[in-house]
Write a structure and sequence with these properties.
about 60% helix, mainly alpha
Length: about 220
């Protein structure tokens, strides 16, 4: 193996050398996404990935250098599932469509929200970030306001997806009801939480809350 080059997989030049067939980077990333969906980030190992594509670890390293490379590639791959439509007449609706789809994709791949914050330089990520910012520019934002709103929307959808995915994965309906009972057992200790329906899975619909959150961020109803 040649010496590993540092830095993001997106910034590293691919070595011009023959690669074993029929293995390809696309096939590796497909397998990695499937393993991440099944086992999560901690369950993805290079050994398990090599077994999934039926090659030796040595053959795998001809295409990817590290697990970090695999995670970056897998994250960009699932961003490709977010539709990228033509810009419409209503900039806010364009933003809503993108953010809704982004949330849906992250909920389908619940490992993804925990990775966002890494350098996101893949073509799918950058194309969708460009689409988001161009819509916000059409809405009159520029400079610091554009940066703040971009970050606010990204943090909102990532946080919502992370919270929902974790809640769905770790709490069964009985545990959710028990969590609510813990709050309602002593109404005098948590009067506001009792009144607001905090942790009451049957009171508020996640989709509705998410949409109303978008209203608050964008300053207008959808």
């Amino acid at each position: 193996m040649t010496e590993t080059q540092p830095g993001s997989v997106w910034l590293r030049e691919n070595a011009a050398r023959p690669r074993p067939a029929p293995l390809s980077r696309d096939r590796i990333v497909d397998a990695a996404v499937a393993l991440l969906d099944e086992y999560g980030i901690d369950g993805l190992t290079m050994r398990r990935l090599a077994q999934a594509v039926d090659v030796t670890s040595t053959a795998l390293y001809w295409h990817v250098k590290t697990k970090e490379d695999v995670l970056d590639l897998a994250l960009d791959r699932i961003f490709g599932e977010v539709p990228l439509p033509e810009a419409g007449d209503d900039w806010a609706q364009d933003v809503r469509r993108l953010i809704r789809a982004w949330r849906s994709v992250m909920l389908r791949h619940p490992w993804a929200p925990g990775l966002i914050g890494r350098p996101m330089l893949g073509p799918n990520v950058l194309a969708r970030t460009e689409h988001l910012q161009s819509a916000l520019v059409r809405g009159g934002l520029a400079g610091r306001d554009l940066a703040v709103t971009t970050r606010l929307l990204a943090n909102y959808v990532i946080g919502a997806a992370l919270t929902e995915a974790t809640w769905r994965r770790t709490a069964d309906p009985a545990a959710q009801r028990e969590a609510r009972r813990h709050i309602t057992a002593d109404p005098t200790a948590y009067p506001t939480l009792n009144a607001s329906g905090h942790l009451d899975a049957g009171r508020w619909d996640d989709d509705d809350l998410f949409e109303r959150g978008l209203d608050a961020v964008l300053g207008r109803p959808g």
